[in-house]
Write a structure and sequence with these properties.
The complex is a heterotrimer of chains A (about 325), B (about 350) and C (about 250). Chain A is built from twelve helices and twelve strands. Chain A is of the alpha/beta class and about 325 residues long. In chain B, about 70% of the residues lie in helices and about 0% in strands. The two termini of chain B are about 20 Å apart. The chains are: A alpha/beta (about 325), B mainly alpha (about 350), C alpha/beta (about 250).
């Protein structure tokens, strides 16, 4: 008897967990997958996911955010394989690894599934030419390092030391950003730019990592943080050690905490690549392609430096949970 | 169960035929779960029974399965290995580094990476046996240690291989003919067959079960329990490394941050397949099925449009479901007087 | 003193003494077992029975005195040594693996194999058959299959299985330490039957048991210990169970 009940519960739970979205999707609804390397446990990805899902609602299509727990490239590649197997009307891929993700993308193209790249463009020369030709929605990362460097330029002296906090070296884009920054600042200021890998999973650990670096390199006058988590840590460090005006902060992406640091003048600026727009616009791009046959467009979402002057404009975006 | 139980055991009646046979299947829980999941997902998604979907399911099954099989054998011998997740990322990284960055021949690099895995397993085993500390703790410690080594080996950066290599093809880069099913499936099946034969048909297998069932009693009967456990530690570490190397072969990139959840997933594979956390029980066929079921769940969730953020919840549910079915069916089977061939 | 003649003796202790530091556990013990003889070892707690058995099975080396086995002077470095020589001990915890099947337990550590190396696989057919034959001879006729796990067996059946295993693997002397302590009357009967089967196939058997009426029923000779010495060795037919109990309890003159 109890066994029977259990089996029934199992069936209900299995089916229940899976039918809800399926019932919502009437036959013939367009279906898109947006494939990333991390889920809502990372704030940036949570905002992308929201953009994807709200675009789906607004356009009346099924838009699915598909990602493993951050950040396992093999799991992302396996998921992408599944996404391709679902034979959807289009796929957007965060192109974190030009090697691991190429094969599933080529499989998709062979199966006539439209593919675009999102958040991370192609960085490798060896990549399949068909992938190199794909449209890209996201920040232009080849130039983002220079943009951030330019933001810091007025505050820095010649020959100074700058550290680039890299929270996820498995994501190729992070390396590209630090490299771009290094190249720019070396050229303009002959500054020395170090990369600090800071993959700590809690703020306390992250702060300890940064603190250790700053104590052993006291000549550092700027910290560039590649995501809001490390950006918040840098802000806390400056405040704790009373380094306002001595150590300048710049970074990527926005969160309520980073916006607050900017408003209080501790952080100089952050380059906003608009995670929400990346998710939303990639669905729009794929939608236009499958509905009207339009070629997907390149969209640069990262054009704005948020500073103390324009921070107020950004407040509503961040408050609504759409700043990333 | 206790010394002087006098209950009457009914002799198996006729007419139970198929039903009785079903209860005698040790892997019933995972089989039932597999059938329900396959039925559920094929109802929810017309793509579930396609070749592309099979390719995706099997790719996941290989990842969960090869490492899961090693952990299953170790758990039958009564020990745990939490360090499999770290070995899984460390060894392919070592292979990629030796081969791509240091110019070693690919086979030499592969061999050295596997040797490293065996050494890690040996160290886990020796520490467990001689320090008398539970293997769960020992391997938790070594897991953290080796994870740190991986991160420092490349500073956290991945190593990728572009180009063509027969070795990489055999490891999983190639598909069968023009299908979308990776040849890495052969490794999973081959390893499962070998381990299954060793466990069920050789004296070594008998000793592994005995060592985990009751180590003291096994020692009293002359079984070299320490040696058996050492070998199992080395096997689990070796297969964890090989899983990582298959992933490297299949996808071409080795990253130090991969596989953080793999240790627990491997234990789930062993337990869902009919294994016991207390040792002395377990099934290779069951673990193989469990890895396919996990693969079906992973791919099935994607195909039916559910966010994969539900995957973990699903695994938790599956674990409970399979364990309850296994226990229930065993007792129902015992009441019906069914005998499992051993 | 002994019922076993010099020629027929398979095992003998000569003036054996065992000290643990200053404590004398066994003193000047002379003890013999003949083939096809069941010897019951009785006495109060602390009388030295278990120590004596542990000397016989190689767990302890005696402080003084000689040990003879099958006409030769021997000394065992470990229980493993003793077992190799043919002295099998059935421990209280039996050395059985509950989750393993009966036949796998029966042959544990001594599996039969067929086929050329490296394809030396278990000879399951023979092992199943031999296991069933042995258990049937022990009176376990209720068993349906050697594939059943040991944990479905009753306590008495497990004892019988352990005894059958010891007998099958060339044991000459069988040592049983409290084989029936946790068993019901019916289960005790199963053990008795197994012990007698072992005796009838030529083994010498030594049983430690608190249940004097049980010892009296199945043993050929009863040896009573007190304070590390043997105070009485008597043929079963020459004494009643009541009298043995009285001696053990110290209520009766020798």
């Amino acid at each position: 008897m109890r066994l029977k009940g259990l089996l029934a519960a199992a069936a209900i739970a299995l089916v229940g967990a899976t039918t809800a979205p399926d019932v919502a999707s009437a036959q013939g609804k367009l279906k898109f997958y947006v494939n990333f390397i991390g889920g809502p446990e990372i704030q940036f990805f949570a905002v992308v996911k929201r953009g994807v899902e709200e675009a789906g609602k607004d356009l009346g299509v099924e838009a699915i955010y598909s990602a493993p727990k951050c950040c396992d490239i093999n799991l992302q590649a396996q998921l992408l394989k599944s996404d391709v197997a679902a034979n959807p009307n289009g796929i957007a891929v965060e192109f974190n690894d030009p090697k691991a993700l190429s094969k599933p993308i080529v499989d998709a193209l062979d199966a006539k599934i439209p593919v675009i790249l999102v958040n991370t463009q192609n960085f490798a020369d060896e990549t399949d030419p068909r992938i190199k030709a794909l449209a890209y929605v996201g920040q232009d990362e080849f130039h983002s390092g220079a943009k951030v460097g330019a933001g810091l330029l007025p505050s820095l002296k010649k020959g100074t030391r700058v550290v680039c906090q890299n929270p996820g070296p498995a994501q190729i884009v992070q390396t590209v950003r630090c490299d771009g920054l290094k190249k720019f600042l070396e050229e303009k200021l002959s500054a020395s730019v170090d990369t600090l890998v800071n993959t700590a999973s809690t703020p306390a650990q992250g702060l300890a990592v940064l603190d250790g670096y700053m104590r052993s390199h006291p000549d550092t006058t700027a910290i560039v943080s590649l995501n809001p988590e490390t950006g918040t840590i840098a802000c806390q460090w400056v405040e704790k050690n009373d380094k306002q005006g001595k150590v300048f902060l710049g970074g990527y992406d926005i969160s309520p905490a980073v916006l607050d640091c900017i408003k209080r003048g501790i952080t100089s600026f952050t380059l906003v690549q608009q995670a929400y727009a990346q998710g939303y616009l990639s669905v729009v791009n794929l939608y236009l392609k499958s509905k009207y046959g339009m070629t997907p467009s390149n969209i640069d979402t990262g054009t704005l430096l948020v500073t103390k002057e324009n921070a107020a404009e950004f407040q509503p975006v961040v408050d609504s949970g759409r700043g990333g | 169960m206790v010394a002087n139980s006098e209950e009457i055991r009914p002799v198996r009646g006729r007419g139970f035929g198929l039903l009785a046979w079903l209860f005698a299947v040790q892997e019933l829980g995972v089989l039932v779960a597999g059938v329900i999941i396959a039925a559920g997902f094929s109802y929810l998604s017309p793509q579930f029974f396609t070749e592309a979907s099979a390719g995706s399911i099997l790719a996941s099954a290989v990842q969960f399965g090869v490492v899961g099989l090693g952990v299953t054998v170790l758990m039958i011998a009564g020990e745990f290995d939490i360090s499999v997740a770290s070995v899984y990322s460390l060894c392919p990284l070592v292979m990629a580094s030796l081969w791509i960055n240091h110019g070693f021949h690919v086979i030499v690099a592969l061999g050295l990476a596997l040797l490293l895995a065996i050494a890690v397993g040996l160290a886990n085993g020796l520490a467990t046996l001689f320090l008398g500390i539970p293997s769960f703790i020992i391997t938790l410690a070594t897991a953290l240690f080796w994870a740190g080594v991986s991160l420092n080996l490349t500073g956290g950066y991945p190593i990728s291989f572009f180009g063509k290599s027969a070795v990489m093809n055999w490891l999983g880069a190639a598909d069968f003919g023009r299908s979308q099913i990776s040849v890495s499936v052969l490794w999973l099946v081959g390893i499962a067959i070998i381990l299954s034969v060793v466990l069920r048909m050789t004296a070594t297998g008998n000793w592994i079960f005995a060592s985990g069932g009751d180590g003291r009693a096994a020692r009293a009967m002359g079984v070299p329990v320490g040696g058996v456990k050492l070998a199992c530690f080395m096997l689990s570490s070796l297969l964890a490394a090989f899983t990582g190397i298959i992933q490297f072969g299949s996808f071409g990139s080795a990253t130090p941050t991969q596989g953080s959840d793999l240790a627990l997933t491997a234990i789930v594979v062993a337990v869902v397949g009919g294994g016991s956390l207390l040792g002395g029980r377990g099934s290779i066929i069951g673990a193989l099925l469990a890895s396919v079921v996990l693969g079906m769940a992973y791919t099935g969730l994607v195909l039916s449009g559910v966010s994969t953020t539900w995957f973990q919840s699903f695994v938790g549910f599956l674990l409970l479901f399979a364990v309850i079915i296994n226990l229930r069916m065993a007792s129902v089977g015992a009441r019906l007087g069914v005998i499992r061939k051993s | 003193m002994s019922a076993a003649s010099e020629a027929a003796r398979i095992f003998g202790l000569r003036d054996v003494t065992m000290n643990f530091g200053n404590v004398v556990a066994i003193q000047d013990v002379v003890f013999e077992v003949a083939p096809s003889e069941i010897v019951g070892l009785v006495g109060d707690n602390g009388a030295g029975k278990s120590t004596l058995v542990k000397i016989m099975n190689g767990f302890y080396s005696p402080s003084r005195g000689n040990m003879e086995f099958r006409g030769e002077r021997v000394s065992f470095a470990s229980p493993r040594d003793a077992r190799k020589a043919g002295i099998e001990t059935v421990y209280q915890d039996l050395a059985l693996i509950p989750a393993l099947s009966i036949w796998r337990n029966f042959f544990l550590g001594r599996e039969l194999k067929v086929g050329p190396w490296p394809l030396r696989f278990l000879d399951k057919k023979s092992m199943r058959q031999i296991t069933m034959e042995n258990l049937r001879e022990m009176g376990l006729t209720r068993l349906r299959s050697p594939d059943e796990p040991v944990d479905i067996l009753s306590g008495g059946e497990r004892q019988a299985l352990a005894i059958a295993r010891a007998r099958h693997f060339g044991g000459t002397l069988l040592l049983l330490d409290e084989p029936t302590s946790a068993l019901s009357v019916k289960e005790t009967e199963k053990v008795s039957e197994a012990v007698q089967t072992a005796r009838n196939s030529g083994l010498g058997v030594v049983i430690i048991d608190h249940n004097i009426s049980h010892v009296h029923r199945i043993c050929d000779r009863i040896v009573i210990m007190e304070g590390g010495r043997i105070i009485k060795s008597v043929r079963r037919d020459d004494v009643t169970a009541e009298r043995v109990a009285d001696i053990v309890a110290g209520r009766h003159a020798l």
